[in-house]
Amino acid sequence: MLKAGILGGGQLGRMLLQAAANYPVITHVMEKSMDCPAGHLCHHFTAGDITNEEQVYTFGKGLDVLTIEIERVNVAALERLHAEGVRVIPHPAVIRTIQKKISQKSFYVEHSIPTPDYVITQTAAELSQLTDRLPAVHKLSEGGYDGRGVQVITKQEDVSLAFDAPAILEKMIDIRRELSMLVACSEQGELAVYPPVEMMVDPYLNQLDYQISPAILPDEIYWKAEAIAVKVVQSFKSPGLFAVELLVDSNNDVWVNETAPRVHNSGHHTMEGNYSSQFDMLWRILLNYPLGNTDPVLPSAMVNLVGAADYAGKAIYEGLEQVLSMDHCFVHIYGKEETRPGRKMGHITVMHNDRSELLHLCNKIKHTVRVIAPKS
Amino acid sequence: MLKAGILGGGQLGRMLLQAAANYPVITHVMEKSMDCPAGHLCHHFTAGDITNEEQVYTFGKGLDVLTIEIERVNVAALERLHAEGVRVIPHPAVIRTIQKKISQKSFYVEHSIPTPDYVITQTAAELSQLTDRLPAVHKLSEGGYDGRGVQVITKQEDVSLAFDAPAILEKMIDIRRELSMLVACSEQGELAVYPPVEMMVDPYLNQLDYQISPAILPDEIYWKAEAIAVKVVQSFKSPGLFAVELLVDSNNDVWVNETAPRVHNSGHHTMEGNYSSQFDMLWRILLNYPLGNTDPVLPSAMVNLVGAADYAGKAIYEGLEQVLSMDHCFVHIYGKEETRPGRKMGHITVMHNDRSELLHLCNKIKHTVRVIAPKS
């Protein structure tokens, strides 16, 4: 059986391994501690630092294929492994480009992919020279994640909030919609495109509130979104499963926000909602099988279950039983011992032919379940 | 987190553990060798003999809840554990009743549950006194599985084929349909009934050829099947997930063939075809969650992938790529290294709103994929 490795053992790894059990494959995972969401679901677990070159190299040597569930991995090791014949999906060059917002933005510009206008800043002080560009969004080039490393700079006085590290200052888009396009690319360059997903974002946490698939869009936006997402993935010239996050403005122009070269939160609904889930699809690419069917089984929606504000400690899923007794819901708890404010603890997918019922159920779920901890 | 144990680590355990990853639960598995389909998907694996009283007792002691994926387990150990406060689902008494065909049949008779008429035989010689009952089916009381331990005795000359061990000689039913009813029962006695499944059986291997859900049945049969399945499960007075196999004769009478007090081959389609799969449902029972929704998402069918005759050795899945490129199919390979004639190696589920398309796809799958081994 083929030996496949995953760098990272969070919930994405967990769900990848659930899907792996449908295929003949020996799975290897590297993560800091076995006590992570994916640690117990693989054939071979390696405790290690996925940002350490020698550890990643040693882990990958001898495997047939390697993938990632997070971008913050050591790329130098992946390049060595790739050069020595280990298949690395996505290609290391893609991860290197995407790891830094600065190189990711340059990539879009070089490939004439529409992305919000920006300038590069190296220090916070530079922003005082750029006030003509406000309001704008300051984004750390490295280390931003789930809303961290992003700062809205509306007026001159906000300049003190700027990051004193390499960053981009990005023009603020008059966002009317946020979409995600999942695109699969096989080793042979064949593509499979999922229907667009509309994401509703929590403005406080900058985390996904809920998402609907397929998004109902005017044709004009639909075709632009698909064309742009395909162009992004084709430009990377790499096999993999990609999530292209798109912004639609008040002129119905479509802009690439960012791309994840891996399975992604915006694709969780595909586990039940589409014939081939994003996790199944990535295994098909890793195992060199034909790509799967991206058609929806039924319309679906997904609600993230994140740690409630003001609670940290052993997770308690308040209201979970009520959600479990609701029809058409699929509960996914990631098995993390500890909750923290905003931490992704699980998600719930809803499937229904009636879209108003989908929204109704999402709203009901959001008001029913909370991840809290015992008051200390 | 609750600690749950599974006795047996075959494909049913594998799929149970895939479903377990949706919930906060620590999983323990006992099986002969870790190199079994479920061995790598649990938190804690114990190599041991599930028919050995002390080993099962030691495994179960300290767990919160125990279940089985096969009936051939040590019941005495489960009775001790149950008495000491470990939840055992299904109850040990149910497993004891079902392990032996003789006690299982007596149970149906005692509870006025329709089951084909039979007599008990202790030796092969007894059959020569029972020729007025031919044609009949001789079934070993213990150890029969997947068609083994079942012998059709048509005429006096066949008596030499009879089993020389405790068995039942069962009246042959003029079978027109074989149905399976999956019924879930919670600790509180609440029931959830899946739509009936029609099974098409390979007469040579006595293994499932393909199955369709929901079965399209005349109302009369539908209601009888449901009423009988519910009666069987209520009579057991035990929580669990039960598969009640039913035979329908030419008078549209419905008879219980046998019951499995566990997840079952006839429920595999529920993984994609129903809102709560049989595996999800059993976890809900084990974790004391509300029962799930048994509604079909879409009509579905399932094809077993068994080892081709005349091949034994390292499994090769001939034609798998063609099936993977067919729309509406879900492939499940159990990860067994070695194939043998008739060995269950995987299954493929198909979902489609159009039932004639379902049958067409099942037939296409059966003629596309074969599990073989290299010719020695």
Task: Summarize the model shown.
2 copies of one chain form a homodimer. With 376 residues, the first copy, chain A, is an alpha+beta fold. The first copy, chain A, folds into 3 domains: 2-88, Rossmann fold (3-Layer(aba) Sandwich), CATH 3.40.50.20; 117-171, ATP-grasp fold, A domain (Dna Ligase, domain 1, 2-Layer Sandwich); 175-372, ATP-grasp fold, B domain (D-amino Acid Aminotransferase, Chain A, domain 1), CATH 3.30.470.
Write up this protein.
2 copies of one chain form a homodimer. With 376 residues, chain A is an alpha+beta fold. The first copy, chain A, folds into 3 domains: 2-88, Rossmann fold, CATH 3.40.50; 117-171, Dna Ligase, domain 1 (2-Layer Sandwich); 175-372, ATP-grasp fold, B domain (D-amino Acid Aminotransferase, Chain A, domain 1, 2-Layer Sandwich), CATH 3.30.470. Chain A is 25% helix and 31% strand. Chain A has 10 helices and 22 strands. In chain A, the strands form 5 sheets. In chain A, strands 10, 11, 12, 13, 14, 15, 16, 19 and 21 form a 9-stranded antiparallel sheet that branches. The first copy, chain A, has a 5-stranded parallel sheet with strand order 3-2-1-4-5, sandwiched between helices. A 4-stranded antiparallel sheet of chain A has the order 6-9-7-8, with helices on one face. In chain A, a hairpin with a 5-residue loop joins strand 10 and strand 11 (191-193). In chain A, helix 2 (53-60) runs parallel beside helix 3 (75-83), helix 3 (75-83) runs antiparallel to helix 4 and helix 4 crosses helix 5. Chain A is globular. The interface between A and B is large, with 41 and 41 residues.
